[in-house]
Amino acid sequence: MSSGSSASGVEVSRPPLPGTVWRFLHADRTARWTSRIVLVVVWQFAAGLSDHVATPLQTVQFVVDEFHRPYQAMPLTVVDNELVRNLAISLQRGLTAIPIILAIGVPVGYAMGRWWRVQGFFTDGVMVGLALPAYIWALLAVMWFGFGNTAPVFCAVASATPGLCVFVMQASLAIPRELRDMSGAYGVPFWRQVTGLILPAMAGALIAGIRLVIIAAWGCVVLVEWFGSDTGAGFRARYFYDNADYTGLMGWALVILIFVITVDRGIIERIHRRVHRWRGSVGGFGAGGSEVQVQ
């Protein structure tokens, strides 16, 4: 007789899992941490198969050693070390490029979706920007501007702006034309249209575009530093690559990835949730909204 049956032969259902355990197993956080654990296990397994792959422990130890290594023979401090100083240089270059990308991509993308003449004027240029890989822009930037801060900023702007233009253009095209015409017919001020119609309709695409811009700009900055720079995270990774130090290369790759994930989860994801709540509070743009109110 099975343990799941009673004496009379009638099946008896097992008690369900406690609610706390059930919620834990189905939580997003559980899925994310399971994915990370699996990644570390696969990483450790790969390290056992090749001498060119450092173990997770060796990689983390290298990052700690970089933090305790003085930056260019300067006195060792919390800031003046190879890890923090090079990461800060790359971050500064990325933060310089991102506002430029947003200042160009958002208005141009909106205008492309709003007016067909503007779309016809910019379409070929945007397609060229999308077609050229980031490493081509990186090589051109190094050839034109040499070492310094100009080349990484230029590469990030040239490579990431076309993608943002496309995101914003598609969001602009999705705004119902009837609502635009109605707003114009009733004389709704432009700023009122922006806050009550344009931004709520484009919010999701804008957040996705900003996420794309941050990732693309950071990648371009690191790529230019790899090809032609004497400072920054990309330069430091290239230094260890040239010296066949695979632990150092993987250590800086880990630092770069952790930085991107931290920015995405710690900043962009929170902004996304706040924008989603704000969008839901605007009439007609929430999940349960059935119509858009233009007053």
Please, could you describe this protein's structure?
- There is one protein chain.
- This protein is mostly helical and 295 residues long.
- The chain has a single domain, classed as Orthogonal Bundle (MetI-like fold).
- The chain is 75% helix and 0% strand.
- It contains 11 helices and no strands.
- Helix 4 (82-114) runs antiparallel to helix 5 and helix 4 packs across helix 9.
- The longest helix is centred in the last third of the chain and has 39 residues, at 190-228.
- It is globular.
- The N and C termini lie far apart (72 Å).
Architecture, according to CATH? Answer: Orthogonal Bundle
Q: Treating each run of at least 4 consecutive H or I residues as one helix, how many helices?
A: 11
CATH topology: MetI-like fold
Taking pLDDT < 50 over at least 5 consecutive residues as the criterion, the unreliable ranges are 1-7, 286-295
Order of helices and strands: HHHHHHHHHHH
Largest sheet: none
CATH class: Mainly Alpha
Distance between the termini: 72 Å
Q: What is the count of distinct domains?
A: 1
What's the overall average pLDDT, rounded?
Answer: 83
What is the percentage of strand-forming residues? under 5%
Secondary structure layout plus pairing:
Blueprint: H1 19-25, H2 28-49, H3 56-67, H4 82-114, H5 116-131, H6 134-145, H7 150-173, H8 177-185, H9 190-228, H10 233-242, H11 246-281
Helix pairs in contact: 3-11, 4-5, 4-7, 4-9, 4-10, 5-7, 6-7, 6-9, 7-9, 9-10, 9-11, 10-11
What labels would you give this structure?
disordered C terminus; MetI-like fold; disordered N terminus; single chain; mainly alpha
